[in-house]
Amino acid sequence: MEFAELIKTPRVDKVLLHRPFHPPVGGTLCLTGHHLILSSRQDNSEELWLLHSNIDSIEKRFVGPSGTITIKCKDLRIIQLEITGMDECLNIASSIEALSTLDSISLMYPFFYRPMFEVTEDGWHSFLPEQEFELLSSETDDWVLSYVNKDFSVCPSYPPIVIVPKSIDDESLRKVAAFRQNGRFPVLSYYHRKNGMVIMRSSQPLTGTNNRRCKEDEKLINATLRPGKRGYIIDTRSLNVAQQARARGGGFEQEAYYPQWRRIHKTIERFNILQESFIKLVEACNDQSHNMDRWLSKLEASNWLNHIKEILTTACLAAQCIDREGASVLVHGSEGMDSTLQVTSLAQIILDPKCRTIRGFEALVEKEWLQPNASGNACSQANSSTSSKMGGISDRRLGYSGPCDDIGHIVTGGAVTKVTGAGGRKLEEDGDYAASDRNGSPMYSLGSLAILLGGSVLLRSSTIPDTLDDVEIRALWGPHHHLQNFFFMLKIVLNDFECMFAVVVLLQNTFGPNHTSP
Questions:
Q1: CATH no. for residue 201?
Q2: Which one in 20, 208, 233, 319 has a CA-CA gap of 20 to 30 Å to 34?
């Protein structure tokens, strides 16, 4: 299929572009196979380049001989195109609808993109488990690479190669996988070189109401503990939710069988609650009344900051257990995806300076979000299951047909994109944070923890907080900032390929296109 077949009118002059909080811009509108482009053709003027794949829905409205096309994007931007001539407006709208709903992956923009710079490495082979294990083996010999899942028969959502305790053989791993939901048995997520403690992740144990146990599972988890040490199991569900899961065949680790582990329940909401909260947040951000009291009231009513706070405090708790308590941590919820990966990812960014470099952050995304879901990425799995149950994020109040079916990824996207790239802070190549106010004076010393989460919350502390009382949280984001910087990683929830491509976009926005990896 040729793109020309879908473009009924490739160019229209005298188009007026309207965007919230921006002055109108008049110019020429052009449609290509992958972009909508509007340029005023004036020196030093801003051009609009919008990927068709970033368009979620369009609406048409006609007044006399002119028409207005309202475009709602997956990054939550809303733009309006005022076009003279009903035929031109209908042709443009029809072309945009066709180009934004292409079914074939091979027609997507990444397959047509040609970089204007020399490609120095093959990204598909930049972050391999063998490379990570080589670094780990230089620190400890307690772990081993396991190929038990090489054909994805043990766990369809795990990669073929995983890192597990050296004392656990493949047959034991198969039994543990049968004891964990969807086969997601405990695997190594992070090794803390300072004291040898680890973060592991898994799904919930299938204990059920009969208190079923698995000795191989107990042996695997205990293998991560040093003599005389205790560990922490951070369950991202409330105790009540975990007990309800137990009645349905799931459950949690029983103290009688895991005496060396202390279980902590931290509530991270899922799906419908986060979705409703997100819808209210979008409504608040689209309010153009410019009234700060109204903005703050709507922001508070959305309860979005509370959800962000829960994820942040849970990640800080995991980091504190590792660094301060000298205890290993196992993180899981029900499926061992979404909230589990949010916590393990943010904890590593807090603990490991390498994860706060370009190269380290790329490796973190690959390791925690792409490789663990190599056969059926969690983004796609969550999208299909959630959309069938809930109809995506579609809501008549907003007019969105579904920019994100799994709202949990929005939370994660908002978190990791703001870890290094907002508020005037700069990411140094050694992974330390440096921040300045508008006058250039330091706000925090190098090495301070300054994480701007979700575009809305700033956590700061000179070190990892001893208690949650040591955490200062304050709202920074007003309505004038709008949405484009807040949600540009929203595309990570689309499909497997676009998920990986969105990471490239994320890194360009976070670190700048001219930054060189250390």
A1: 3.90.190.10
A2: 20
